[in-house]
Every structure is written in structure tokens, then in C-alpha cells.
Amino acid sequence: MENSLYIGLSRQIALQEQMDIVSNNIANISTPGYRAHNMVFLEYLSKQRNAEKAGNDSISMVHDYGHFMNTENGPLRNTGNPLDLALEGPGFFGVQTPDGVMYTRAGNFQINGAGELVTGSGQPVAAAGGGTIAIPAEATEIKIARDGTISTDQGEVAQLMVVEFENPQSLEATGNGLYKTEETGNQSQNTRVMQGMIEGSNVNSIFEMTRLIDVSRAYQSTQRMLQNEHDRQRSMIQTLTRGN
User: Which of 113, 166, 199, 220 gets the most CB atoms within 10 Å of its CB?
Assistant: First the structure.
């Protein structure tokens, strides 16, 4: 009698988490370098009580196995700003944080009051050899080559840390467009730095809006099923109680 409730609740929990992910994708449609996320579901078999009498030894429930990231590149938009950088290829920019080096695709960089190249949220952009990147205060022109080498009219400054990962799904989003991973990135071989451009989000807005509607309907349908099952069980208990 409880099996249908367990199955319905497992589906409802999974749908709620999927709804949260879809909503987050939609909220980041305009976020530079954002990568859409999705969920992976598995069937979970649970041993039943009184299995021999029931004639079946397990029930099937929905299990959230994990998330995966859409690794397709987003569209590139020309801005003309020399500090706007896009990556053409699978690489990620390195970013210095209090918790160590993290990674981002968002190249809407700027120069802070200390002359450091920083992300849009203020974290220092990492140099290829480690450390931060300082732009000379007297520099009047900034050029960034396809390999990430930064030069000004004062000479070469540094090279951007741009790395690639054998398993990009190991990257875990931490907020502000940053990702962390235990995997050691390799110096980029198949990624080019594009100056004066920004990579947009790779979220497909029409697909995500349609998916949000579908998930919402499925959640409501499951809620009705659970309520109907609850009402059925309550009615059955009341009938049995009156019979005694």
C-alpha cells in the first residue's frame, strides 16, 4: 500500500530538483560564458517487505544520479572592448581565489584599482605560471594574442592561464561563473583567446522554457496522484474502522 507513495515521492523530489536546475539555466540566459546543466536519472530498485507473499521482490523508484554540464561553446559577440575575452575551444580561464585556482569561461574582465586584471566579480585572473596579472598604469594599449599572451605599448606583461580538462564534467559550479575541480588542467592546445569578444550563455531559451512547462506539469500530476492515493488509503482505513 505504501509502494505507490514511495514511488510518487521519489519522482516528486527528482522533478523538484530538475525544476531548480531548469530555472537556474533560464536565469543565466544572459550570463557570459554560462554552461547549461541537466540531470541524470537512474532507476533505483528497493527490496519490498513481505516480498515472497507479494510475488515481486522489488519496486522501482527514481534516483537522481547527478548533474552534467553542456560543454558546447556559446555564441561569440563582438564588443570591441580590449578587456573582453572569449575562448574558442574547450579551455577555461584560471582565476585566483582564497580557495585556490578556479576556472571560468566568462571573459568580461576589467582592471581594478591595484592595476590587476580581474573578473567581472572582482577575482584576480590567473597568469599561466601562477600569480596575478598586473597591467602597467602607464599602458595606453593592450593586445592579447590567440595564445593568451598579454602585451602593452610598454612590452610583454604575462600570459593568461588557459587550461583544458580531460573530463570537463568533473568541474563543479561554485557561483559567479566559477568552477572548481580536483582534476589538474593541461595547458591549452585546442583553445584560442579572442580579444574584443564575449562568449554568451549556451542556454537554449526556447528548449528550457518548454522543459520548465513540462516539468511543472509532471510535478503537478504527481502531486495529484499522491493526494488521490492518500485519500484512497484514508477512506479504506475509515471503512475498516467502521467495520470493526
Answer: 199
